[in-house]
């Protein structure tokens, strides 16, 4: 899990909703806090919801896309002259 941690944050610099949650700490004399913000993780219920969505996996039956990395490389190759029959312009030498 990824998290971002900010230490020694002034309570007065926090959003009002966060300050309200810290009311007792502020009243007790705490003026600085450590803030940890964690990445939201997808719940399994959300994953199941996406799995049932007709758009999710709409290309799953495409045999030419079974190996996604190879498919992407094959459609990008002509753009960069890799494995292409198209002529590629030679590199220009700035000293000539």
Key attributes of the depicted protein:
96 residues, alpha+beta, two-stranded antiparallel ribbon, 2 strands, 34% helix, elongated
Write up what this structure looks like.
With 96 residues, this protein is of the alpha+beta class. It is built from 4 helices and 2 strands, in the order E-H-H-E-H-H. A two-stranded antiparallel sheet has the order 1-2. The chain is elongated and about 65 Å long. The chain starts with a strand and ends in a 16-residue tail after the last helix. The relative contact order is 0.11. The model has no long low-confidence stretch (mean pLDDT 76).
Strand content: 15-25%
Q: Which percent range fits the helix content?
A: 25-40%
Mean pLDDT, to the nearest integer, reads: 76
Please tally the β strands and state the result: 2
Strands of the widest sheet, in order across it, are 1-2
Number of helices: 4
Largest sheet: 2 strands, antiparallel
Helix/sheet category: alpha+beta
Give the distance, in angstroms, between the N- and C-terminal Cα atoms. 54 Å
Shape: elongated
Q: Poorly predicted ranges (pLDDT <50, ≥5 residues)?
A: none
Helix and strand string, N-terminal first? EHHEHH
Radius of gyration: 27 Å
Explain briefly what this protein structure is.
With 96 residues, this protein is an alpha+beta fold. The protein contains four helices and two strands.
